[in-house]
């Protein structure tokens, strides 16, 4: 199937569990490197509300704002949520540019989506001086966002699997801003010597990735995936 990609079993991002204290999070990760947090929250109730049938029943006629799946996602398109799920939610075409691919992530209307987000249990850690904001998304296998950076945040997979690639702020990755992550993985990634490869890992449901401020990152959905990020602005 177009967009179907194998999972890479190797994970080079450090992992932590519920024994990680807030003070250790601040000391070891908050300002220096990413970490995958396991079993720090229980979002089984939120997950039950995020099935295809439940989301269509709750949000089917409401418009959602889609962005192009490239580094500078300036173009926006509004479509009914039901149209997105039934007609646009499909595997990534390997031949399409990110600038020609529509992606549903963020730009959520909080008047409509707020009641759903009230059921989400965010990670227990914060960065001093920041305020959390949610971004919710659904995307097909092989889709994703190419390398970009912004402020710190958390990302949790609700359904599916999502592969992450990360570089520190002082190590700009080689990529074309309109190339999809899938194309980068197929064409550029195999040419990288080990010393130039990113930190990477595949997130599964219930796992949360934290990325620090200004870290470059790209994502690749290995399945049709539901995911939510908590941006710390």
From TrEMBL:
Q: Which GO terms describe its cellular component?
A: nucleus
Q: What GO terms are given for molecular function?
A: cis-regulatory region sequence-specific DNA binding
Gene3D superfamilies reported for this sequence: Cupin
- Transmembrane domains' residue ranges: none
JmjC domain: residues covered: 99-233
> Where in the sequence is the signal peptide annotated?
none
Alphabetical list of InterPro entries matching this protein: Cupin_8, JmjC_dom, JMJD6_ArgDemeth/LysHydrox
Name the Pfam families on file: Cupin_8
Give the protein's recorded name: JMJD8 protein
Which source organism does the UniProt entry give? Answer: Brachypodius melanocephalos
């Amino acid at each position: 199937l177009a967009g179907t990609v194998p999972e890479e079993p190797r994970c080079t991002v450090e992992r932590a569990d519920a024994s990680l204290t807030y003070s250790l999070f601040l000391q070891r990760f908050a300002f220096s490197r990413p970490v995958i947090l396991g079993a720090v929250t229980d979002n089984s109730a939120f997950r039950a509300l995020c099935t295809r049938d439940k989301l269509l029943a709750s949000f089917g006629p409401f418009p959602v704002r889609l962005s192009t799946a490239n580094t500078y996602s300036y173009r926006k398109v509004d479509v009914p949520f039901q149209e997105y799920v039934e007609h646009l939610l499909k595997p990534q075409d390997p031949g399409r540019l990110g600038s020609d691919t529509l992606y549903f992530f963020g730009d959520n209307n909080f008047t409509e989506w707020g009641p759903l987000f009230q059921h989400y249990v965010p990670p227990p850690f914060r960065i001093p001086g920041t305020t959390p904001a949610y971004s919710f998304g659904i995307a097909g296998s092989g889709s994703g966002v190419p390398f970009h950076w912004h402020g710190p945040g958390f990302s949790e997979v609700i359904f599916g699997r999502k592969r992450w690639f990360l570089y520190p702020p002082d190590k700009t990755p080689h990529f074309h801003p309109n190339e999809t992550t899938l194309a980068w993985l197929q064409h550029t990634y195999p040419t990288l010597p080990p010393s130039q490869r990113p930190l990477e890992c595949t997130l599964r449901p219930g796992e949360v990735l934290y990325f620090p401020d200004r870290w470059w990152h790209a994502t690749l959905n290995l399945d049709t995936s539901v995911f939510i990020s908590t941006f710390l602005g």
